[in-house]
Amino acid sequence: MTDQLLQALPVSTLVLGACGGAGATTTTLGLANTAAARGGAVVAVDATPAGGDVAERGADAVLSVSGLEQLVAAGPVADDVFDGYCSRTSAGTRILNRIGNQTASEREFHTVTGTLRARGVSAVHDLGHRLRAAYLAPLLATPSPIVLVVPCRADAFNRLRFALQSIGDTLGEPGLARTVVTVSNQDATGWQVDVDLLREYLGGQVWGIETIPYDEHLGMGIVIEHSKLAPDTRAAYERVSAAASAVAEGRPERV
After folding, report:
1. Which helix or strand (DSSP H or E) is residue 56 part of?
2. Which among 150, 151, 79, 139 has a CA at the least distance from the CA of 104?
3. Rounded to an integer, what distance in angstroms lies between the CA atom of residue 106 and that of residue 141?
4. Residue 10 confidence (pLDDT)
5. If exposure means fewest CB atoms within 10 Å of the residue's CB, which of 47, 95, 149, 219 is most exposed?
C-alpha cells in the first residue's frame, strides 16, 4: 500500500448521490470505515433533510436510540456523553444519525460542525441527493472534497449532468474542481456502462473518476460489516479516500 493511501481522511468529506439509490450512504460508510480501520477518529454524519438510514445500514456494533437532534439540543457535552449519542460500527466509526423528528436546519449543522471540530475528528457527511438546501451552508462554507456517487447505469449517467450542474451552480468551478465522481456498480452481471467513456466526457471538468465494484455483501441489504466486504471493494474505498485527501491538499489528479 502506498503512503498516499495511508494518509488520513480530510476533516470533512461530502458524499452526494447523483440520484436516489446511487449508493451515497454505502459510500459514506465505506469511506468512514476505511479511515477508522486505519486508526482515525471519524464520524459518519447523516446530513439528509429528514433523516436517512446510515445508522441502520452501518451500525453493526451499537445502534443508538438518540441522534443528531438530541445532541444539538443538549449543548456542549463531555466526550463520553457525545459517544452516547452516536451509533458505532465494528470498524470503529461513530455514526451521528438523524432521528427525523424535525427537519434539518442551518443552526443544527453549525453546532454539529463546531462539535466535531472541537473533538478533532474527521467527518464524512451523507448528503443524500440534494445539495442546494439552505441547512447545508455550514458544510459548504469550507472547500471540502465532494464525492459524487453515480450508479453504473445509462439512465444514471444521463442524470449525472444535473448533479454536476447543481454543484456548479452552488459552488462554481472550484466546487467541480474538487469533485471526485465515483461510479458504483450495483449489478452482479458486470459493468453495464463504459466508465472510460465517462472519463473522456468529464475530462477537465472534475478532479477525477473512481469506481467501486459490485459487492455481494452490499447487495444483500443487511447491516454492513466492513470486514465482510470483498478485498477489491475495500481497495476501492481506499482509492476514493486517497482521492479525497488529494483534493483537500490541492494535489492534482493521480495519473
Report:
1. helix 54-58
2. 139
3. 12
4. 65
5. 219
